[in-house]
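hey m, so remember when u said the tokens were messed up on ur end? i reran from scratch. heres the input so u can diff it against urs
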Amino acid sequence: MRAYLLQTHEMLFDAHWHGFRVFEGVPGRGIYDNMKTAVDRVGVGKRRDVNARFLAMTSHYVFDPEFCNPAAGWEKGQVEKSVRDAPSRAFEHAREGA
């Protein structure tokens, strides 16, 4: 888990770099919400105007971005719940070590 102060391109690129390093490779595809650092405009269905900097990053690492449908939380599975619960889990482990 990594925490960033802002949701900038630099944060997004850094998070990917660390993830690929930890997992020792790059996946064939990444599934994303329609965050502004990745998508300039959400079109009808799966149509997206993908941000040029984000697209350059996916081209550099050679993987395909896939975007969830708006207001379709079930497509992201447990990701949002995991993000919500992560801080409390991190602090639980910190308290156990004290």
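this time it looks ok to me. The mean pLDDT is 84. if urs says something different then somethings off w ur setup not the seq
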